[in-house]
Amino acid sequence: MRATLFLTILFALVSVAFAAPAQLQSRGGRNGRVTYYSGYMMSEPACGGATPNDEDFVAAVRADSPFKCGDKVTLMHKGNKVTVKIVDHCDSCTYGEWFDLSKSAFKKLGALELGIIDDIIFWKHDN
Questions:
Q1: pLDDT tens track of the chain, all 127 residues?
Q2: What is the DSSP string of 37-97?
Q3: Rounded to whole angstroms, how far apart are CA atoms 15 and 124?
Q4: Taking the domain 29-124, which CATH number applies?
Q5: Do 75 and 120 touch, CB atoms closer than 8 A?
Q6: Domain boundaries, the chain
Q7: What is the pLDDT of residue 28?
Q8: How many whole angstroms from its chain centre is CA 33?
Q9: Residues with Cβ within 8 Å of residue 69, at least 6 apart in sequence
Q10: Where does the record place the RlpA-like protein double-psi beta-barrel domain (predicted)?
Q11: CA-to-CA distance for 76 and 108, rounded, in angstroms?
């Protein structure tokens, strides 16, 4: 009986371990890029609504990105993490999964002086 219980638990744990990467793959990924935008570039966001400011935790993405207006996405780099809301499109974001962040959001991942941060891990939250 104990052996059966042990095998059942072991099978469940192995199943979860193998399912996790597939789930991340369908809702996020690795090797993303972030930059930041501010000022007049934040005016009239493509998703509508109020114009965000540098203190908001928002992002712009390519118009053909799998991430859409209103999606909440968490970005992580070297243990630093930030969650942003997609509110705009970024015409110059041409590299894979590129997120153009507000200054506040960018600073959660690294110094503004960096300008670009690669090797970002990202995932979408269920809205």
A1: 554 544 344 444 434 333 333 344 346 788 899 999 998 999 999 999 999 999 999 999 999 999 999 999 999 999 999 999 999 999 999 877 999 999 999 999 999 999 999 999 999 988 6
A2: --GGGGSS-TT-SSPP-TTS-EEEE-TTSS--TT-EEEEEETTEEEEEEEEEE-TT--SSS
A3: 22
A4: 2.40.40.10
A5: yes
A6: 29-124
A7: 78
A8: 10
A9: 46, 47, 48, 86, 87
A10: 65-118
A11: 9
Q: Which of 106, 104, 107, 110 is nearest to 55 (CA)?
A: 104
Q: How long, in residues, is the chain?
A: 127
Residues 6+ apart with CB under 8 A from 84: 57, 58, 59, 72, 73, 74, 75, 99, 101, 102, 105
Structural tokens at position 24: 């991340």
